[in-house]
Amino acid sequence: MDSRIYQTVGVLVVLAAVAVGCFWQLVTHPRDVLVGPQRGGGNDLTTYFIPSRNYPRQCREQFGQWPFWNPLACAGVPYLGNPQSALFYPANWLCWWFDARDVLSWIMVAHHFWAGLGVYFLCRRLGFAWLSSVLGGCIFLAAPNLMAHTGEGHYAQLCAVAWVPWAFLSYDFMRAGIRPAGVALAVVLALSFFAGHLQETYYLVLLLTLMVVADSIARWRSGDRAGCGRLVLSWLLVSVAAATLVAVDLVPMLVFSRQMVRSSGLGSDVAGKIGVGTLNWFQLINPFAVGGPDSYAGRDKFFWESLLSFGLVPLVLSVVGVVRAWRRHPVRRLTWFVIVAVAFAFGSGSPVFELLFRLIPGLAMFRAPSRVLFFVAMAMAVLAAAGIESLIVRTPAAAPGSLGIWLRRLLLIGVSVGLLVAVAGRHESKRERVPIEEVSNATDSPSATRDAPAVSAEFRAAILQRAIRRTVGSRSTWVLLAFTVFLLLTAERWPKRAAPASVLLLVLIAIELCGHAQRMLTVLPTTALHIKVRIGAIYNYEVEPFRVLSGSNALSDLAAWEHFVQKAQAYEPLPLGRYSKFFAALTGKPDPYSELVGPSSLTVTNYDRELLDLLNVQVAVLADDAPPPDGWQLVARTATQVAFKLGHYRTSWESVAVYTNPNALPRAFVVGRTRVLNQGTDEIQALADLDPRDAALMTVEYLPPGPRAEFAAATIIEYTPNRVVVEATLTAPGYLVLTDQWYPGWTATDNGQPTSVLPANIAFRAVPLSGGTHRVVFAYKPVGLGIAAAISLAAWCGVLCVILWKKPRRTP
Fold first, then answer.
1. Which end of the chain is more exposed for a tag (fewer CB within 10 A), N or C?
2. Which run of H or E residues covers position 741?
3. Which residue stretches of 272-366 are H helix?
4. What is the residue-wise DSSP string for 98-136?
5. HEC per residue, 261-287
6. Please, are residues 637 and 554 in contact by the beta-carbon 8 Å criterion?
7. Residues 335 and 450 in one domain
8. Residue 433 has pLDDT above 50, yes or no
9. 559-608 pLDDT, tens digit each
């Protein structure tokens, strides 16, 4: 058998073993859901991705329709076009046949494996030996930063990141002039885009562009003008090809981007808000130096966003790679990238971030610059592989000098890192001081404690003490470091023992990183996700559609959507701008994001009553002791499932009260009078002053002057995700208002004739009607979908032809 087959089988076995070690709890409980220990298992996977990935199957089974529109959240939102829906990502198609609770955790594990395999093949392409490449793949598969995001349920991010090493591998082939590599790179970029998180794909395209620029300049300076032109042209063709491959998702996404809250971008203070802090330097030695996922006390409360850790052993090996293999491609390039990327990850206040934010378009769309650490983790894995390679294969390019020079350089780098940590510690110690026992017993509460000005200085001083104790004062850290140095010195002193020492280093890495993963991950029984509130009193309350106002803890999106209960709020990371304005007027808060995503408790008495009626909120699930608005009626007292201690799962219920709103407006109604919003009018204030039974807010008056229809309810004949049929009778001209979100792509017919769908009351839909009886049919199809789908289909057919085409052999 070919040795390459043995090597491929070997790497698959090793990566699978490391994956089993990292995800052991899921392996032993394969039907559970992979989560982190924070918030009782609540994360983005359980809150957002499971109901979102189940929705296409639900839409097909209940209505026989494509999941273009989702009426169950926030008065209706587009499904196709939402960047995180990832409708066209192949892995998500499993959810069309299987429950997302059963498959999403394993899809994340598969992407960890795929990411590690990509680094292995990338290292092999760079000329590394088999053992060095396997080590690099294991490091990236089990990277602490990736594991932390997995524990927080960042499913789409993990799917996108898994394609990063494959993109760099394809680029290296394209750089060498291998033509099919351009097609492979376009496909990889398309799959990364389809995965459902644009930030990682954007960073990937940006890095590849910078690499093209650097390689083009190098070729130009060396006199290879033709090679420079070919590389630039190849990259332009790849970019165009990737855009055509994803057109079916890209065009609806561009429409969505103009309607969402962040359509105008973010300022540098907001875009760089979530980043690394100076205390995170300690995490280079111990990822839990500043606390774990459930007890983090760093710059912000997001452990997974600011985790500056790659493993202690991989860190030492990467330093060895930089020192010993500086001249080897691509060590020098990766080293500079790591330095710049880590400086960028600090976000607001970092000179690198502020400079790049102003120079590079598109960075204003993202609020977590620390996501660049995904790419740093891959770079560190390759550098660590280069360090092992320099010990196994002694080449002139890999060995810059004698053992003395190597040790001096290693000492210099260690001292430099120590100075950085010392400076960071001194900076933090000036701002924090709190009793150390209060910190050690913290869970999520330190975030709140940290924000209190009176104790901020004491708190941060205590965190600094704990970080020092968990790094410099940790016995396990010194033991791990001692073993690593011993094996490195053995490989350096006795070359024949370099391979066995490298194998032991691989084992040491697996033990360290798997141990970190076990502390960042746990599992949640799927029975905990089937339902969070006994909603019998809600489900059969009305025949016609209505909305429920409820905190996410009382009625989860998953439980509501499975019973086609429509929530006025939902965990939607990218809410639409019109609905956000409506909610700002409803709640009286300029920034209503926390209210939109559904907090654990609601103060409904502070909401605008008339706008609450307009929103068609007929039911509210409130805390048992929460006061309802005047006039609301108590229907039932039921129970809601609350948080529990993971690993000791038990069902725990707390009492909630279900109220009904007898004054809620019907979902569809007729109104005659209008209030025109002139340019410069405060829309939120105009909504707050509106009586929806008397008039509708319109941007333009579409009906002729004269008598108008009186307020009257309309009858909904059919209500499905992509189609709504309404019948109404008017005594005079007026507007049929449907309190579902207005969005481009919604069309309507009036008695079979096309008519306009207009925005009314800022967020909703309206159709102008004449007097008489009308049958209005609303239908939704994403704007430009037909043309975009045709372009993508043609592009994928072209890719298939390239894959299947074989160059004919020349006959002698």
1. C
2. strand 734-741
3. 312-324, 331-345, 351-359
4. S-HHHHHHHHHHHHHHHHHHHHHHHHHHTT--HHHHHHH
5. HHHHCCCHHHHCCCCCCHHHHHHHCCC
6. no
7. yes
8. no
9. 888 888 899 988 888 889 999 999 999 988 888 777 787 665 677 788 88
- Claim to verify: residue 711 and residue 582 sit in the same structural domain: no
C-alpha span between 536 and 527 (Å, rounded):
18
Other beta carbons within 10 Å of 28: 10
**Which DSSP letter does residue 402 get?**
-
Are both 10 and 140 inside the same structural domain? yes
Mean local confidence (pLDDT), 638-660:
61
CB 502 within 8 A of CB 509: no
The structure's pTM equals: 0.89
Whether residues 14 and 131 share a domain: the answer is yes
Q: Are 92 and 160 in contact (CB under 8 A)?
A: no
Is residue 106 situated within a structural domain?
A: yes
DSSP codes joined into one string, 226-245: HHHHHHHHHHHHHHHHHHHH
Whether residues 475 and 376 share a domain: the answer is yes
Q: DSSP letter at 543?
A: S
Query: Token pair of 282, please?
Result: 């300690």
pLDDT computed for residue 455 by the predictor: 41
Element (H, E) at 9: helix 3-22
Residues 597 and 702 in one domain: no
Q: How far apart are the first and last CA of the chain?
A: 30
Instruction: Give the residue ranges of DSSP H helices in 442-497.
Output: 445-451, 456-471, 475-493
Q: How many domains does the chain have?
A: 3
Q: How much is the pLDDT for 420?
A: 45
- Percentages helix, strand, coil for the chain (3-state, rounded to 5) are 55, 15, 35
Domain region containing 701: 668-781
- Helix 373-392 / helix 130-141 crossing angle, nearest 10 deg: 160
Confidence at residue 598, expressed as pLDDT on a 0 to 100 scale: 66
Same domain, 755 and 610: no
Q: Which H or E run contains 618?
A: strand 617-623
Does some domain include residue 586?
yes
Q: Tell me the residue length of the chain.
A: 812
Q: Which of 633, 660, 687 is the last residue of a domain?
A: 660
> In this predicted structure, what is the pLDDT of residue 264?
56
Tens digit of each residue's pLDDT (9 = 90 or more) over 531-553: 554 555 555 545 578 898 887 76
**Integer Cα distance of 629 and 632 in angstroms:** 6
Mean pLDDT, residues 224-237: 92
Q: Are residues 614 and 645 in the same domain?
A: yes
Whether residue 807 lies inside any domain: the answer is no
Helix (H) or strand (E) segment spanning residue 774: strand 772-780
Check whether 54 has a pLDDT greater than 70: yes
| C-alpha–C-alpha distance, residues 232 and 669, integer Å | 58
Handedness of CA 72, 741, 572, 632 (dihedral sign): negative
d(CA 664, CA 614): 7
